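Encode chain A's predicted structure.
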Amino acid sequence: MSPPTATNLADLIRESEGLLAGFELKALPKGHLLSAPGSPRNQVFIVRSGRLRVYLAGESRELTLSFLESGDIYTTHTPTYVESVEPSAIWVMETEAFARKLATDPSVTPAMMRVLGRLLANAVTLIEDLAFREVPARLARFLIGLVERRGQRRDDGWQVPMELGMEEIASLLGSTRQTVSSLINQWEREGIIQRQGRRSLLIRSREALEGLYRRE
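Encoded structure for chain A:
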């Protein structure tokens, strides 16, 4: 059989029938805490569907590092919390068994490293934002990122999906839901953005967002 040509783990799963051999499919309800710092469980999991949040938590504050979606891979043996933010399904395997699987089928390694690299990049960006930028610049950076990753060019701007709620976006930015909602409303009045239902946003002026981000 020729080697897989997939560019991400979701494609790799579709192309490689043996990749999921040994994994157990597990359903998670919304709000299920899959792992926490110091958890004795040492498992690797791949998200089949839904969305899970990876975050750090202190006595009075939480910081979201990333959201895991279909095709993402992660482990329960980290100093982070992992919680399902909507009903989800994951494939799970003990870490030792997964390590043996990698030794015989290393095709999953590049996709796994991309996910871990994204988590690290998100963490570094969050630290940089919290240290040097105010909330408007953080939100502008977040929306610019949506344009770059998921934006669809239109005559009147860039249309981007808004799959995360205000609470989730605020958590990613180290802010509050009220602050993020106020900024979205303000920028809509100023003509920078325009809501298109609950799950879509039109970025009318990417240049204005870039100016807000670079100003700080």
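The mean pLDDT is 83.
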